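Researcher: Let's walk through a ligand-bound prediction step by step. First, I give you the protein sequence. Second, the SMILES string for flavin-adenine dinucleotide. Third, you return the three-dimensional complex as structure tokens. Ready?
Model: Ready.
Researcher: Here are steps one and two:
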Amino acid sequence: MITTDICIIGAGPVGLFAVFEAGLLKMRCHLVDALPQVGGQLSEIYPGKPIYDIPGYPEIKAQDLVDNLMKQIEPFNPTFSLGERVDGLSRLEDGGFLLHTSDNTEIQAKAVVIAGGLGCFEPRKPAITNLEKFEGKGVVYMVKDPEHFRDKKLIIAGGGDSALDWTIYLANLAKEVTLVHRNETFRGAPDSAEKVFELAKSGKINLLLNSNLQAIEGNGSLKSVSVINKQKEVQELEADYMIPLFGLSPKLGPIANWQLNIDKNAIEVDTFDYSTNVPGVYAIGDINTYPGKLKLILSGFHEAALMCQSAFKYVYPDQKLSFKYTTVNGVNTF
Ligand SMILES: Cc1cc2nc3c(=O)[nH]c(=O)nc-3n(C[C@H](O)[C@H](O)[C@H](O)COP(=O)(O)OP(=O)(O)OC[C@H]3O[C@@H](n4cnc5c(N)ncnc54)[C@H](O)[C@@H]3O)c2cc1C
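Model: Step three, the predicted complex:
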């Protein structure tokens, strides 16, 4: 059981910055994100793109902003559960909350901050009839720990950056890697595509172009994957794991079931302190809605600062809050 002052759901830029604002007020944070890495949309969708509207940065690459945020919050020692979705939120008798995740992690927190952005990124899945039966038993949609695939036979499918990057990385680790792609060319970065073609040429991976996943077989766990090409020829390949990497699409997910007031997939908040209709639960960043809301990173940063002033009173009802500039007080760690 993890215990903390604030549990932040979502480790996008806004969830990360909330750790800093909470830290200034001496509140500890634990963050949970369904993705295996921090950074939310910035790391998942556009890591290499420059952002031009972060105050003080005329231009900054999305991944660099995430790295800077991680550096900025380091003094406050936040803890993380990554690659886990928060599925349940219930209130405890003392006014705090119990959260549980898809990996059965339990977190006890005095206050909850939902910084869930557009919601959980759900994997796009291949159209295979018995797919669900093998999920977690050989079929996985993200690589959390590459070591897991050491000396295994892998079928990776997809044509974007994730499929290319993981094919290149796992080629050195796995026993056998087959990349299946429905076209002849890749959507991912040209230099990654080139590397994949080279690996195929040198016999380090099997590359099946103009091909689709067709069926999977196994007895309790995955044993083989059938692949069909444009000429309708089918080949059955032995496999320990099948990793379809067809991209992720955001869905509000479990947040919709937590008795929060929701309007068009966003949580309604009071702009005084970004509190929701459930006392002790706040919503900041892209996940919230209010009149005039702008889904921008800087709006989320502002919301995080105001939210923490109110969360402090919820976490420490008996303590007085005195406002101090960081130039005066510095960043006092704990
Ligand atoms: C292509 C593109 C370009 C953009 N350019 C700009 C720009 O130039 N300037 C700008 O200000 N904004 C830009 N944006 C918008 C900006 O990315 C968002 O405003 C920002 O990401 C919001 O941050 P967030 O932390 O609120 O949410 P997100 O970045 O969406 O992060 C939310 C996180 O919550 C996690 N999550 C959700 N539900 C759960 C759950 N139940 N359990 C566990 N984890 C959960 C998700 O996995 C996700 O990682 C752009 C967006 C896109 C797509």
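Researcher: And what stands out?
Model: DSSP finds eight helices and 21 strands in the chain. The CA atoms of residues 238 and 309 lie 56 Å apart.
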